[in-house]
Amino acid sequence: MTDLHRLSIRELSEGLAGAKFSSRELTEHYLKRIAKLDTQVKSYVTVTAEQALAQADAADAAIKAGTATALTGVPIAHKDIFCTQGIKTTAGSKMLDNFISPYDATVVAKGKAAGLVTLGKVNMDEFAMGSTSENSFYGATANPWNLGHVPGGSSGGSAAAVAADLAPFATGTDTGGSIRQPASFCGLTGLKPSYGRVSRFGMIAYASSLDQGGPMARSAEDCAYLMNVMAGHDAKDSTSVGKDVDDYVANLNSTAIQGLRIGIPKQYFNVAGLDADVKARVEESLKKLEDMGATLIEIDLNMTEAYVPTYYLIAPAEASSNLQRYDGVRYGYRAENPIDLMDLYKRSRSEGFGAEVQRRILIGTYALSAGYYDAYYVKAQKVRRLIQQDFLKAFESVDVIAAPAAPTTAYKIGANLSPVEMYLGDIYTIAVNLAGLPAINAPVGFDKDNLPVGLQLIGNYWSESQLLSVVHQYQQATDWHTKRAAIAEENA
Ligand code: GLN
């Protein structure tokens, strides 16, 4: 079969189970596409062809033996932030260019246990800091919809790989939008689960109170399959939650659109810098949901102006603490010929970290320093609580909250926005992380340059099934999620 890359996860699952094709055929098909097309997309940092084929053969044996799960033999790409035993894990940084983890992240281990075949590790902004994937030691990844544009970030490699049909789905992580924004820029569906729903064990830390892994795929249905693997309590992550997981696939039609109350925050649609096409496509998608029976209710989220400053204190503060471990001594990059220990520390960190990471370490260390701790860090924590309360108040009168995922479509590669301009682009995503809420991006059309636009739906805690269900039904009634970038149409 030459069009295996067009199949949904359900079709792959059924095709493998019904012996229409083998996991080896499917894996070889994807490896061929990667070899042919990823020279242009540059989504993979590491392709693990040999291991993938061995896993595929094991999957085929399991399918024959009747011990397969729904996903046995289905290929996946992992964001290069998830530790993979015996395979390089770089987090997009020179600091970890030589790092081979002695263990698997829980998400990776669960994927293996479910029989997923790892195609490789995909590119990202260094330590997940950024919105374009240009902050990677391995260079920029291209947006499959227009190779001169960025795929978004930080999970830009995950998004580009899926959008170019170089993986059927991928893992991502979202600290301030890094699943939703690249999904938006690449025309994909991406779910950021509630904080604590997916284990962070073995997921290289950026800002621990905000980081959360989740699925990136072509549809809500595909995301649901991956959520069934990723979600769940993990004794190795003390912030993971003991709450029962849903069967996200079985729940795809569990939420009625009829009567669904969708909150439209007044403040969100008056943001300076909200692109007219983005606004129009998002409004059209909401109109469609209204036609399907939902009620649109205008709401207030009064803390909107505080999102960017609050996030850009808390996230760098936690990052500066998490990144202390990269000292050139235990693992990672080590400067050559140090003259003493201090020189080793200084040069290892100066040479090993890129500019954006260093900027955030400086901001974070400053905000945590003795004289400024109360004025910046403690204040930001208080504002964070107010932002959370603002959402909880809104959820008293609505079921979900709608927003764009980003104020614009994908930037040009090399657009060279200032750090502040870049940070302002995170306005619609970061509050969700500050509050620990789940949110999903769904593709809802294109701008005048044929770049994808995304609708974000934010839910109350543990409403992942509801978000997936709403988007699934929207996708049953529309075809935006079936559109493919030209490069994805090419055969290998
Ligand atoms: N763009 C945001 C940042 O640079 C979010 C990144 C993320 O979610 N990892 O911090």
Key words describing this protein structure:
single chain, 492 residues, alpha/beta, Amidase signature (AS) enzymes, eight-stranded mixed beta sheet, three-stranded mixed beta sheet, 16 helices, 38% helix, globular, binds glutamine
The CA-CA distance between the termini, in Å, is: 12 Å
CATH architecture level-2 label of the domain at 4-254: Alpha-Beta Complex
Number of strands: 11
Structural class label: alpha/beta
What's the CATH class of the domain at 4-254, please?
A: Alpha Beta
Helix and strand sequence:
HHEHEHEHEHEEHEHEHHHHEHHEEHH
- Largest pleated sheet: 8 strands, mixed
According to CATH, what is the topology of the domain at 4-254?
Amidase signature (AS) enzymes
Query: Low-confidence runs (pLDDT<50, min 5 residues)?
Result: none
- Please tell me how large the radius of gyration is: 21 Å
Q: Please, what is the CATH homologous superfamily of the domain at 4-254?
A: Amidase signature (AS) domain
Strand order of the largest sheet: 4-6-5-10-11-9-7-8
Helix share bin: 25-40%
Report the sheet-strand fraction: 5-15%
Question: What average pLDDT do the residues reach?
Answer: 97
Shape by Cα distribution = globular
Based on the structure, what is the oligomeric state of the protein chains?
single chain
Bound chemical compounds: glutamine
Query: Count of helices?
Result: 16
